[in-house]
């Protein structure tokens, strides 16, 4: 069986998409509970559920463990995770991570490929080769792949599938969805990597059940994804949430965006390495070396991490003051240094958050790059079921 197919995605009404996404995040649920969560009437729930069951994407059965004292067992509706597969791709500056995920975004297969050339002419063939490899893996499951999601850092126009600017890859105006889609014959969704990860956290992770939360990522850059009133915010120009480019010090270090004193120019890994070299005079080239120096008791390096933590804490405080989220999730490869800048984050956040905004739940959640690729798969699932939960 080939994993590509001309079978169209289900044509869903907004109500059916809402029911589908609710069951993805919270199911199995009874029809009554689905109605309470979505605000839809019993008739609307029935109308939404029926075509999805006929297509095999939803199933319904008795919940024997929730048997009432009299009458029949409660009937639950759930998503048939194995009904469709999706491929998620995360592209970093030096590798491509790909996953094959089911309809509930559970990873079935994962692959990693090193990048030796960041030019689109080299990266695109590597992406398509990985997709074809995972299509072969999908054949073994006997299920077709319905879409591909690609997540890349920077300014990404999801609506048109164009990478407008990716600083780490040094790409400008690359029509990635069109090029990859033509090569593999599948629908392709391209999105900013932090927004894609936010989608996965919203539907399947630490943001499930929250109408307002933010995801702050720390590492090669400082990113932020935001969910407001249950919708991922991309903004009118697609760059909402760029807290990494909040300028905290107009006399601070130069940022690659052209401004000075940005959070990213103080707290991202490249900025930390640069500051460690300046402070110690040592040729420190990796995060591991910097961490070893800090953990060995080098106060100069400890101060670099303390400043980074303060910058991140101020940025989160500003975010909370503006957005008022229930939770802020801190993630990214930079969490390897969290013990070094945790105090700085906590103290700066407490000092900058206004009033009851300081009650926001700030938590850490380590997420490896396979989870970022899973986020890309989540955007493909979004496109497939017509649930584009984005807000300008």
Offer a few descriptive terms:
392 residues; alpha/beta; six-stranded mixed beta sheet; five-stranded mixed beta sheet; 12 helices; globular; disordered N terminus
List the helices and strands and how they pair.
Layout (H helix, E strand, L loop, with lengths): L13 H13 L2 E2 H8 L3 H13 L3 E6 L10 E6 L5 E7 L3 E8 L4 E8 L5 H22 L3 E8 L2 E3 L4 E5 L4 E4 L1 H9 L3 E5 H12 L8 E6 L3 E7 L2 E3 L29 H5 L1 H12 L6 H9 L3 H25 L3 E5 L6 H15 L8 E4 L4 H17 L4 E2 L1
Parallel strand pairs: 4-7, 7-11, 12-15, 14-17, 15-16
Antiparallel strand pairs: 1-3, 2-3, 4-5, 5-6, 8-9, 9-10, 12-13, 13-14
Structure write-up:
The structure is a single chain. By secondary structure, the protein is of the alpha/beta class. Helices cover about 40% and strands about 25% of the residues. The chain has twelve helices and 17 strands. It has helices spanning about 15-25, 30-40, 40-55, 120-140, 175-185, 195-205, 265, 270-280, 285-295, 300-325, 340-350, 370-385; strands at about 30, 60-65, 75-80, 85-90, 95-100, 105-115, 145-150, 155, 160-165, 170-175, 190, 215-220, 220-230, 230-235, 325-330, 360-365, 390. The strands form four sheets. A six-stranded mixed β-sheet has the order 16-15-12-13-14-17, with helices on both faces. A five-stranded mixed β-sheet has the order 6-5-4-7-11. Strands 1-3-2 form a three-stranded antiparallel β-sheet. A hairpin with a 3-residue loop joins strand 12 (about 215-220) and strand 13 (about 220-230). Mean pLDDT is about 90; it is low at about 1-5.
């Amino acid at each position: 069986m080939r994993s590509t197919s001309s079978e169209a995605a289900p044509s869903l009404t907004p109500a059916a998409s809402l029911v589908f996404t609710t069951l993805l995040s919270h199911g199995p649920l009874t029809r009554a509970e689905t109605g309470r969560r979505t605000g839809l009437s019993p008739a609307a729930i029935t109308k939404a559920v029926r075509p999805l069951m006929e297509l095999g994407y939803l199933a319904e059965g008795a919940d024997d463990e929730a048997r009432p004292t009299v009458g029949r067992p409660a009937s639950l509706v759930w998503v048939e995770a194995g009904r469709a597969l999706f491929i998620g791709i995360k592209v970093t500056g030096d590798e491509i991570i790909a996953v094959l995920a089911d309809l509930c975004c559970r990873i079935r297969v994962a692959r990693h490929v090193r990048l030796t050339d960041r030019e689109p002419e080299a990266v695109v063939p590597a992406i398509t080769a990985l997709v074809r490899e995972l299509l072969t893996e999908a054949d073994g499951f006997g299920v077709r792949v319905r879409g591909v999601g690609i997540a890349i850092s920077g300014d990404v126009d999801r609506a048109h599938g164009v990478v407008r600017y990716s600083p780490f890859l040094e790409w400008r105006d690359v029509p990635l969805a069109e090029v990859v889609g033509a090569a593999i014959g599948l629908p392709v969704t391209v999105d900013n990597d932090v927004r894609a990860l936010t989608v996965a956290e919203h539907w399947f992770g630490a943001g499930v059940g929250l109408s307002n939360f933010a995801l702050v990522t720390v590492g090669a850059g400082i990113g932020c994804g935001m969910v407001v009133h249950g919708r991922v915010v991309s903004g009118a120009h697609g760059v909402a949430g760029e807290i990494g480019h909040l300028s905290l010090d107009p006399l601070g270090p130069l940022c690659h965006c052209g401004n000075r004193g940005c959070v990213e120019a103080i707290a991202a890994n490249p900025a930390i390495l640069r500051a460690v070299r300046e402070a110690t005079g040592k040729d420190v080239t990796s995060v591991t070396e910097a961490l070893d120096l800090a953990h060995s008791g080098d106060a100069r390096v400890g101060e670099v991490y303390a400043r980074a933590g303060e910058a991140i804490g101020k940025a989160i405080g500003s975010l909370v003051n503006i957005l008022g989220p229930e939770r802020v999730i801190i993630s990214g490869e930079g969490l390897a240094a969290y013990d070094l800048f945790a105090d700085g984050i906590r103290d700066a956040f407490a000092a900058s958050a206004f009033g009851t905004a300081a009650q926001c739940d700030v938590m850490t959640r380590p997420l490896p790059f396979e989870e970022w690729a899973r986020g890309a798969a989540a955007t493909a699932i979004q496109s497939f079921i017509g649930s584009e939960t984005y807000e300008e």
